[in-house]
Amino acid sequence: MTIFLIILNVVLKSLALIVPLLVAVAYLTLLERKVMASMQQRRGPNVVGLFGLLQPLADGLKLLVKETILPSSANTVIFIMAPIVTFLLALLTWAVIPFGDNMVLIDLNVGVLFVFAISSLGVYGIITAGWSSNSKYAFLGALRSAAQMVSYEVSIGLIIMCVLLCAGSLNLTEIVKAQKEIWYCIPLFPLFLMFFVSA
Amino acid sequence: MTFDIFLFYLFSILALLSAFCTVTSKNPIHSVLFLVFVFFNTAGLLILLGVEFLAMLFLIVYVGAVAVLFLFVMMMLNVKISESSSAIYRYLPIGLFLSILFLFEIFLIIEGDLKSVDNVVFIQSEYKILQTEFLVNTSWIDSVISPTNVDVIGSVLFTYYSYFFIMASVILLVAMIGAIALTLHRRSDVRRQDIYRQLQRDFEGATYLVDKKI
C-alpha cells in the first residue's frame, strides 16, 4: 500500500510538472508564429478558436494522427529511439529546477552537474537521429549540430563554475537562495553576456 | 533497503548484459551505444553507493565527451560491419590473459576493502557503546555538519593529495601540448601571411629601387 502511495505521489508530481511545461511550450510556439507573422505583416494562425488560440492543440492532434514513415534503409531501432531520447532528456532537466521554496521535484546535491550532464547527453539524440536514417545529408546536418552543441559546452562549464564559486554549492536551491541579496547577473555582468552568447 | 538491493541488481545485470553486447555486436555503432548504456548503469551503481558527484562526473566525462568522440569517429570512418569469426579467436589468448589479470587485481582490492570495512564496523560499534554508556545524547557534530560529496573530495584533494592533483593536471597539459604539436606541421612551400612582418613595414622599407638593366 505504501509503495502504491509513493508511486502515485511520484507520478502526480511528475504530471504536475510536465503538463504545464508542455502546454507552455505549445503556446510559446503559437506566440513565436504570431510574432513572426506580424514581422512579415501577416496575420498568423487565426482560424482555429478565438485569435487562433486553439491552434497548438490542433497541431498536436495533427501530429498524433499522422502516418509514421520509416525509411526502408534506416536502422529501425535507433531511428525510433532517437527522438524519444531527445524528448526525454529535454524533460529530465526540469526535474531539478526549483520553482519556489521546496517546490522542486528532486533536490539534488549536485543539481548543476546533473543539468550539465543531461544537456551534454542531448548530443546523442541528434547524432543517432542523423546516422540512423542512412542518408548522407541528414548525417552531415547531425554532425554540424552535434559539433556546435559540444563546442559551447566548455565555455558554459567554465562560466557556471564562477557562479558555483560565488554560491559555494552545487545545489540549485542553494544557488537561488544565495542570490537573495542581489542577482548574480549584476556583479557577474561580463559572464552573463558570455553565457548568453554561449547558450 | 530492499528497493536499493533491487536497484543494485537491476543496474548490475543491465551493465553486464550490455557489456557483453558491446563485445559481441556486429555493428560498431551498436557497440558504442551499448558502451554508453554500460556507463549509464555504472553511474547508477555509483549513485547507489552514495557518491553522486563521481557519478555525475562519470556521465559528463565519459558519456558526454569520450563516447561522443568515439561515435563521431566510428560514424565517419567506414568501419567494416562484421569481422570473420577466426579473427575473434586470434585475440582470445591475450584477452583471456588480461581478464584473468584484472580479476586477480579486483580480488586483491576486495579483500583489502573487506578487512577495512570490518575494522570500521568494529570501531563504529565501540563508538555506539561509548555513546550509549557515557554520552546519552546523539553526536551533535554529525547532526550539525553534514558535508556533501563535493566538500569532502575538495577538502581532501586540495590538502593531502595536492601533489597528485598538480601532477595529474601537468599530465593533462602535456597531452594537450602534444596534440597541438602533432598538428603543427608547417610546410615551407606555402605562401602565408606573417602578421608581425606586415605590421613592421614602414615607408622607408616599403619602396626601394631595383638595379635592372633594360
Uncertain stretches of 5 or more adjacent residues of chain B: none
Shape assignment of chain A = globular
- Terminal-residue CA separation of chain A: 45 Å
Number of strands of chain B: 0
Count of distinct strands of chain A:
0
Q: What distance lies between the first and last C-alpha atoms of chain B, to the nearest angstrom?
A: 100 Å
- Briefly note the CATH topology name of one domain in chain B: Four Helix Bundle (Hemerythrin (Met), subunit A)
The whole-angstrom Rg of chain B is 29 Å
Strand content of chain A: under 5%
Proportion in helices of chain A: 55-70%
Task: Please characterize this protein's 3D structure.
The complex is a heterodimer of chains A (199) and B (214). By secondary structure, chain A is mostly helical. Chain A contains 7 helices and no strands. In chain A, helix 3 (76-92) runs antiparallel to helix 4, helix 4 packs antiparallel against helix 5 and helix 5 packs antiparallel against helix 7. The longest helix of chain A is centred in the N-terminal third of the chain and has 38 residues, at 2-39. Chain A is globular and about 50 Å long. By secondary structure, chain B is mostly helical. Among the domains of chain B are: 1-83, Four Helix Bundle (Hemerythrin (Met), subunit A) (Up-down Bundle), CATH 1.20.120.1200; 136-200, no CATH class. In chain B, helix 1 (2-24) runs antiparallel to helix 2 (28-49) and helix 2 (28-49) packs antiparallel against helix 3. Chain B is extended. The chains are: A mainly alpha (199), B mainly alpha (214). Chain A binds chain B through residues 75, 78, 108-110, 113-114, 116-117, 120-121, 123-124, 127-128, 131, 139, 143, 146, 150, 153, 169-170, and chain B through 29, 33, 36, 52-53, 56-57, 59-60, 63-65, 68, 71-72, 75-76, 148-150. Chain B: InterPro entries: NADH_UbQ/plastoQ_OxRdtase_su6, Nuo/plastoQ_OxRdtase_6_NuoJ. Chain B: GO terms for molecular function: NADH dehydrogenase (ubiquinone) activity. Chain B: It is an enzyme of class 7 (translocase). Chain B: Belongs to the complex I subunit 6 family. Chain B: It is found in: Mitochondrion membrane.
